[in-house]
């Protein structure tokens, strides 16, 4: 049986990721593990439970208390832990995007392999900051919303729209607010954390751009109206951002007219 763990985290989270160039690791994985992706007849066995279920306590998002302001090491750790969890989940999302969808151009699989490797880097950078505060990933409760959204989107256009053009783009919007929150609390880890957040914003722009590209490739009519209709359909998983990071979204492939339409839509409708 080929489960989605066939392309699993141990390919990325082992010592190779820290010691070998990305290009070499790309080649190793693609040569040894991805031949079956060209065969649409190979059964797909997606993960039924989050890969972090064994070491994280999963709870409903509304039960997770996130500090509005950082006033202590623990409150900083809680904020940081929530971002670490997002980055860990994002590795799964990229790997599942590779595994779940078959018969696509080779560039599709290269794109999401690169995303997975970059998400692993983000996870590692943030985890180091978390460890510097005396905490570990799994010390605080987490939610499974990204995994649940992953399970709910079995069609490529839905996956790209909701996860990578929708939720991941929301990360572009929230990054400046997180930076501001981190800057409120002076700590020895602050410079390292701010540097990691800058790297994440840069890379996430390219990830959203890949989601934009493959959404337009897979969607019969890639219009703003259809994109918003998809977000509305999956409103259980999607939460409207308070403020759009216009510059980052433009770099990620959104058009200014589209951003204006989204802002009007978000102001007048409840997703």
Q: What does the model show?
A:
The protein is globular, with a radius of gyration of 18 Å. The longest helix is centred in the last third of the chain and has 29 residues. The chain has ten helices and no strands. It has one domain: Ferritin, core subunit, four-helix bundle (Ferritin). With 271 residues, it is mainly α.
Fraction in beta strands: under 5%
The percent range for helix content is 55-70%
CATH class: Mainly Alpha
What average pLDDT do the residues reach? 88
Largest sheet: none
Organism: Helicobacter japonicus
InterPro entries: DUF455, Ferritin-like_SF, UCP012318
Protein name: Ferritin-like domain-containing protein
Pfam families: DUF455
Task: List its salient traits.
Ferritin, single chain, Ferritin-like domain-containing protein, 271 residues, 10 helices, mainly alpha, globular
Structural topology:
Blueprint: H1 16-19, H2 22-33, H3 73-100, H4 106-132, H5 145-152, H6 156-183, H7 190-218, H8 224-233, H9 246-251, H10 256-268
InterPro entries: DUF455 (IPR007402), Ferritin-like_SF (IPR009078), UCP012318 (IPR011197)
Pfam family, one: DUF455
Protein name: Ferritin-like domain-containing protein
């Amino acid at each position: 049986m080929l489960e989605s763990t066939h392309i699993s985290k141990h390919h990325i989270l082992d010592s190779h990721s820290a010691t070998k160039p990305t290009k070499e690791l790309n080649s190793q994985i693609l040569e040894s593990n991805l031949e079956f992706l060209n065969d649409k007849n190979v059964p797909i066995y997606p993960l039924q439970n989050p890969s972090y279920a064994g070491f994280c306590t999963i709870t409903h998002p509304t039960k997770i208390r996130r500090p509005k302001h950082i006033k202590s090491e623990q409150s900083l750790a809680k904020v940081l832990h929530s971002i670490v969890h997002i980055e860990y989940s994002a590795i799964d999302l990229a790997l599942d995007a590779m595994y779940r969808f078959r018969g696509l151009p080779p560039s599709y699989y290269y794109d999401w392999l690169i995303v997975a490797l970059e998400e692993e880097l983000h996870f590692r950078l943030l985890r180091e900051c978390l460890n510097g505060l005396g905490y570990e990933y799994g010390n605080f409760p987490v939610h499974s919303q990204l995994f649940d959204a992953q399970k709910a989107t079995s069609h490529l256009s839905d996956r790209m729209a909701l996860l990578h053009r929708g939720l991941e783009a929301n990360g572009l919007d929230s990054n400046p607010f997180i930076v501001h929150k981190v800057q409120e609390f002076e700590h020895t880890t602050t410079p390292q954390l701010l540097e990691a957040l800058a790297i994440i914003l840069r890379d996430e722009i390219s990830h959203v751009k890949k989601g934009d590209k493959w959404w337009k490739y897979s969607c019969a009519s890639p219009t703003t109206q259809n994109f918003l209709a998809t977000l509305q359909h999956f409103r259980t998983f999607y939460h409207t951002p308070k403020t759009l990071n216009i510059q980052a979204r433009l770099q990620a492939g959104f058009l200014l007219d589209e951003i204006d339409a989204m802002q009007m839509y978000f102001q007048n409708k409840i997703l």
